[in-house]
Structures are given as C-alpha cells and as structure tokens.
Amino acid sequence: MVLLDSFEEIHKKEPNFLLFDEVQKVPNWAGKVKILYDTKKYKIFVSGSESLFLRKGSRESLAGRIYEFEIKKLSFIEYLNFAGKAEMAKKPQLYDVELKIELRNYLLSGGFPELMGKENKPLIKQYIKSAIIEKIVFNDMAKIYPIENPSQLIKILDIIVDNPGMLVDFSSLSQEIGITRQTLSKYFEYLEMAHLVVKLYNFSRNRITSEKSLKKFYPTFLSPVLMEESEEKTGKLMETVCVIATDAKFFWRDKYKDEVDIVLQKDNETVPIEIKYRNQPSQNKGLRKFLKKYKCREALIITKDTRKKANDADGIEWVPVYEFLLRF
To answer: Which of the 8 DSSP states describes residue 162?
Structure first.
C-alpha cells in the first residue's frame, strides 16, 4: 500500500494497472491481491516462475476473480523468431537445409530461451536437471504435496525421459519402483500438475472408455541426450516434440497392438498423425486401420525429409517434421 500511496503522491492519480512479478515470494500474496481486486480500482496482473504456488494461491483465495495463462516454452516458430530467422517459416520448402539445422539447434535448447546457442549437451542436461526438474520437485512440489520421498519422483521422470510415450501400467511400475499403486498414481498426478509430464489417452468416441484404457506419458521437456544416439531414440525425441507442439491428448492402440502416435481433434474432424522419422519411411498398418474405422478425411505422416501431397485415395499427407512444427 505504501507503494500505491507514493505513486499517487508523485503522479496525482491512482494507477490503472498493477503488475506483480514473482508474487509467490510474498507471504499471503493471494489475500493481499484479493483486497486490491475488491476495491475495483485496478487491472491486476500476477506472474511467477513457481506455477504450483500461483495456482494454489489463486484457487484458494481468488476463485472466480482470476484468469490463468500458461506461458509455455518456445515453439519452433517462436524459436526462429528469437533467432532472427522468421523468414524461413514463411517458405519452408525453400529453406529445407537451413531448417534441418535450426531444428537441431531448437531441440538442443529444449525450447528454453536461455539455452539458445548452447551446444554443450552435458551442460544443457545439467541445467535442465538442476534449474528446472530438481527445483520443481524438491522445492515447489515438496512444499505443496504430501510427498514422503521426492527422489522417487525423479526416478519416475528418469523412466519417462528414457522411454517417452511408454504405456504405463501402474501395478507393475509401482512394484518396480517400490511404492504402492495408489502412491504412484498420485505421483503421476502431481507431475502432471507441475507440467513435467503429459498424459495421452487411448482414443475412443466414448470418453469413459478412453479414460479407463492404458495411458501414454511423455516428458514435457526435451532431452538432448536422445539426439543422434540411434535412429530409434531420435525418432522418440521427434515423437515427443510433436506431442508437445500439438498439445495432443490422444493416441490410438487396438487389441492387436496396431497404433497411431497422435490423434488430434480439430474443427469437429479427427486427424491421425504417425511419426516416421527415418530415411525410408513407410505407412504403418495402424494408420490404415484407424482411417477405415473412423472414416477420417485427412491424415499426416511426419517424416525426416519426405514430402508428399495428399491424394484422393487415402487423404494422407507426408510432411517433414521441421515443416510440420511450423504449423503450431
């Protein structure tokens, strides 16, 4: 209040906007913001790097008074803008070679502006581990949720990072880690709330059926360690970046284990997407089965560099991953 009084004394009027950054560091911040809000004098913006504290405070004291906006990591097109190379996004086919290089640099940065231009993989890995993951797990999450052993969350994250897109069976994984199934389920819920993992449901027209099926989990951060180790691991990295970029909620897998990596729903249309990041990509049986089952009018196969226009027979478009990512 002293600051507001000083502003009014200097400018002879009250401010119209109040902006509080890193507001979670102020004790009882939500209660204090509520008092200011209820005067109906100001437009108030609050921000902070510890989203769990912000969400907890806003929902407890500011319910019905606040709109939440999540500022995500850089998309590929945002990365190009930051790098001063926005013209590449306008004509991707003209900049094939350059975009491949920039995609690698983008993946190395993990979408974090502060890592742009960094090439040292161990350094990048250490930054993501200490400045992001361990900070969220041991500082933010441990203070909010009833977590007996935060290191078990790190173990779960390590498993997901090494196996992005894994189908999680809580019963078997809980035995492997040495905790109860209920605790493991809660830990995954906490990791989702902290934006460290994302969950994909097995697609079905029936929502209840989707939620009861096995789920796939991906890390929300990219691991540069996976790059160039093997074709399979690089493919999994590309699958992860596509899941993150599209904000995917579904994959598809039938009882015969035929799969589609991503299922998007846009404008009342269902669009299956298969990631085939390899030198000689081929259409898989799962995509064909999905198209037939759900009568989709379009589908995408995301490739390393193969490009084919959709034809009337199947409606499948083949798109290089660097070009696909520019759509989001």
So the answer is: H
CA angle 105, 111, 115 (to 5 degrees): 65
Determine contact, residues 196/217, Cβ cutoff 8 Å.
Answer: no
Structure tokens at 160: 């997901």
* DSSP 8-state symbol, 252: E
Which residue intervals of the chain are DSSP H helices? Answer: 2-11, 29-38, 51-61, 76-82, 87-90, 96-109, 121-127, 142-144, 151-162, 170-177, 181-193, 207-212, 231-246, 285-294, 321-324
Q: Over the range 213-244, which residues count as b (16 or more CB within 10 Å of their CB) and which as e?
A: eebbbbbbbbbbbbeeeeeebbbbbbbbbbbb
Model pLDDT for residues 71-109, shown as the tens digit of each residue:
888 999 999 999 999 999 999 989 999 999 999 999 988
User: What six digits make up the tokens of 79?
Assistant: 């990365």
Q: What is the pLDDT of residue 225?
A: 58
- Residues whose CB is less than 8 angstroms from the CB of residue 71 and which lie 6 or more positions away in sequence, other chains included: 47
Write down the pTM of the prediction: 0.85
Q: What is the dihedral of CA 47, 53, 54, 55, to 10 degrees?
A: 150
